[in-house]
Amino acid sequence: MPILAPTVPSSSNRREQVVWTRLRLGHTRLTHRHLLFGEPPPYCEKCNVSLSVKHILCDCPHSNHLRHRLFNSVDFTITSILNNSINSSLVFKFISIKGFIHHI
After folding, report:
1. CA-CA distance, 4 to 103, in Å (whole number)?
2. Three-state SS sequence of 25-67
3. Distance (Å, whole) CA 25 – CA 27
4. Are 41 and 66 spatial neighbours (Cβ–Cβ below 8 Å)?
5. Closest CA to 17 of 100, 78, 96, 104
6. pLDDT at residue 70 tops 60
7. What pLDDT digit, counting tens, does each position of 16-55 carry?
8. What residues have CB less than 8 Å from 75, skipping those under 6 apart?
9. Alpha-carbon dihedral sign for residues 55, 97, 37, 4
10. For the chain, N or C: smaller number of CB within 10 Å?
11. 1-15 b/e with 16+ CB inside 10 Å = b?
């Protein structure tokens, strides 16, 4: 489990604060809905692995090009992303482009 700083981007609106907090906790509607509705756990459609915040933000090879284009970071870990080391607006842009923003 990553060690995360206790901050939420101060310039964000309430919806962005909720999304940011859910990402940092690793509990989103997309990744944890199955627990509430007794459904099978979600899998990445491209990789056929368990869907998690870490997989979406860091691990999915089908997002590598976009990840590198937006973040251009060598130290691209869940901790660096969610500790505000990386501009939060870029994280929101990434999850928006990937189509996850409304499922967080």
Report:
1. 22
2. HCCCHHHHHHHHHCCCCCECCCCCCECCHHHHHHHCHHHHHHH
3. 5
4. no
5. 104
6. yes
7. 888 988 998 889 999 999 998 999 999 999 999 999 999 9
8. 85
9. positive
10. N
11. eeebeeebeeeeeee
